[in-house]
Amino acid sequence: MSPAAAEPLTPERILETTEEVLRRYGPAKATVVDVARALGVSHGSVYRHFPSKAALREAVTERWLGKTVGRLEEIASDGAESAPSKLEAWLEALFDAKRHKAGDDPELFATYTVLLAENSGVVEAHLAELVEQLGRIIAEGVEAGTLDVPDVPAAARAVFDATGRFHDPQYAAEWTSPTISREFEAVTSLVVRGLRA
Amino acid sequence: MSPAAAEPLTPERILETTEEVLRRYGPAKATVVDVARALGVSHGSVYRHFPSKAALREAVTERWLGKTVGRLEEIASDGAESAPSKLEAWLEALFDAKRHKAGDDPELFATYTVLLAENSGVVEAHLAELVEQLGRIIAEGVEAGTLDVPDVPAAARAVFDATGRFHDPQYAAEWTSPTISREFEAVTSLVVRGLRA
């Protein structure tokens, strides 16, 4: 990434560059000064948008996690599909997104694994958002009579927990196993069947 | 543990002492010489039963994992209960056993977490045995008409994967959460419902 100080210094540009710097130097060494240098600006300019190194790391973590959420939200709010199909599609999209993040750029994934451990508040909010999306799909299915669930938020959480092997980064090493897709399908269909009316 | 060289030197005594030594010195430092010293015997006597340090560590890991299996086997082979009740009881007994191991003696649990990473063959055989027990319960349910499952081994594996949060030691830190029992019950009932005829 070459310095391009003529472009306006937006938070998004700072975050993109922060990701580059993290990838290059690793999470232990990357500093705000490195980010400013890569952008060709003073570190004061970066601090104007992100008041501390911690705030910058939190924001870059949030942005990375947020990338998955948009596609999942599309599935969750699709009016044409039935709830059971949406659940399957949503779980598959989540697994695909995580698998690609881990497989396409393993160094960046390892970097974010460190950042996730630092920013537990951001992670919790992200997980709550995902469980909330699941809850909306399940509530729709209950409404339409395709699903039968006594406690929707508890069921949403249970679906998320039961599929953890396919989205929790702790399991990333298993996602390249030749049997993982079959195992994912077995868990998904078990879980969706467990919710059916 | 005081030396008691008069007692016969059985593999079981060596393994018990090895566990003590591992707990005291940690897995990085514990040696066969430490084990022999604690038993009041020469290290040659220990090597007569376990030909290498690796073999001794493997055997102690196997013994530790095996402690859970007996109770679970009792549940799996109980002729009086229906398959759905047995499944719930089995999953609860597994979670209880793991939770107790982690909570009652956290240092020993941490020690075994290191050993588990070293002895992946032993761990795999242990997991295969657990999944096989689940498969027997599920097959019984299919036979009796209480469960409806197209592929029993795949379903057994799916049940095991879906409940990983409640037995995989990676999650041990979450097992003291005040909501964990409720979350366990939600996942268990979802999974058992997913197998029902």
Automatic annotation (TrEMBL), chains A, B:
Which InterPro entries does the record cross-reference, listed alphabetically? DNA-bd_HTH_TetR-type_CS (IPR023772), Homeodomain-like_sf (IPR009057), HTH-type_TetR-like_transc_reg (IPR050109), HTH_TetR (IPR001647), Tet_transcr_reg_TetR-rel_C_sf (IPR036271), TetR_C_27 (IPR041478)
A Pfam family hit: TetR_N
Keywords recorded for this protein, A-Z = DNA-binding, Transcription, Transcription regulation
What sequence ranges are listed for the domain HTH tetR-type? 8-68
Record's superkingdom? Bacteria
Gene Ontology molecular function: DNA-binding transcription factor activity; transcription cis-regulatory region binding
Q: Which residues form the signal peptide?
A: none
Coiled-coil region(s): none
UniProt-listed SUPFAM superfamilies:
Homeodomain-like, Tetracyclin repressor-like, C-terminal domain
DNA-binding region extent: 31-50
Family annotation (PANTHER family): HTH-TYPE TRANSCRIPTIONAL REGULATOR RUTR, TRANSCRIPTIONAL REGULATORY PROTEIN
Name the UniProt record assigns to this protein = TetR/AcrR family transcriptional regulator
Q: Which organism is it from?
A: Streptomyces globosus
